[in-house]
Amino acid sequence: MTSTDTTADAFGLDARSYSEASPDHPVNEDFVLVGQNFAVVLDGASPVTGLDTGCIHDVPWLVRTLAGQLLVRLTTSDDSLGDILTDAIEGVNCAHASTCDLSNPNSPSSTVAMLRRRSQEIDYLVLADSPIAIQRNDGTVTAITDDRIDHLPDYSVAGISKLRNSPDGFWVASTRPEAGGMAVAGTLDLNDGGPVQQIRAAALLTDGAATLVERHGGEWADTMRLLEIGPRELIGHVRTVDESGTGKFRGKRHDDATAVLCMFPTNAYRAAKAD
């Protein structure tokens, strides 16, 4: 498990994060990156036991390598987040094209959630089921999701293999760079077009940390309130509710869980000068 805490840079993020492996899993296949003006959450997809992936590497390798490629680009490039993800996937491909079959649709893969602040705007990107929640000063919360995986016609192993990274299915970060252009992405004005900042916080979550809403029918505002107490406290509550839940759901009862809370402070120098 990992925990990070960064201070806000000029027009940056004040971010807190926590990540831990599933109680049923010895290795955490999530990954979190937090920089001066960006945050990234990745959730590696565990393959079915015995499935031929065409790759000699495991999911943690894919997630670590993708995180490294994203880090280089987020700290050196002003390209759109979609283009940055496309270039990062190409970088991962170069790292194992000589040893692995990159045409195999079951090659290791990951979800992606990215947030980047640029002055008074924030860019976002969501690929697969790692949502971003945006909270405004009035308490309202808007969820940015990519729910294509929730609407597949076939959830068999063969069906998912056929639909992965397909226009008729869903997209993940794996071996197809064009996935970067298929993500849910955009830009938000922190002021919502007015003179005063309206967006106060954002959360990046893997699906294992978002089950209060996505599995148990809770409200995003409640998730944000728990997250402001602390990312670790949110995930602890998620574990308790997941363990006691009795409803039907697709997938695992427990999963790796990662939560990042990003605040958007006013530039300290400009605030002092205004006073």
Question: What general form does the structure show?
Answer: globular
Contiguous uncertain segments of 5+ residues: 5-9
First-last Cα distance: 42 Å
Structural class: alpha+beta
What does this structure look like?
Helix content is 27%, strand content 25%. It is built from seven helices and eleven strands. The protein has helices spanning 59-74, 81-96, 157-163, 211-214, 220-229, 231-244, 268-274; strands spanning 2-5, 14-20, 30-34, 38-44, 110-118, 121-127, 132-136, 141-144, 184-189, 199-205, 257-263. The protein is globular, with a radius of gyration of 18 Å.
Can you describe this structure in just a few lines?
This protein is an alpha+beta fold and 275 residues long. The chain is built from 7 helices and 11 strands.
How would the blueprint of this fold be written?
Layout: E1 2-5, E2 14-20, E3 30-34, E4 38-44, H1 59-74, H2 81-96, E5 110-118, E6 121-127, E7 132-136, E8 141-144, H3 157-163, E9 184-189, E10 199-205, H4 211-214, H5 220-229, H6 231-244, E11 257-263, H7 268-274
Antiparallel strand pairs: 1-2, 2-11, 3-4, 4-5, 5-6, 6-9, 7-8, 7-10, 10-11
Helix pairs in contact: 1-2, 5-6
Keywords:
7 helices, 6-stranded antiparallel beta sheet, 5-stranded antiparallel beta sheet, 275 residues, alpha+beta, 27% helix
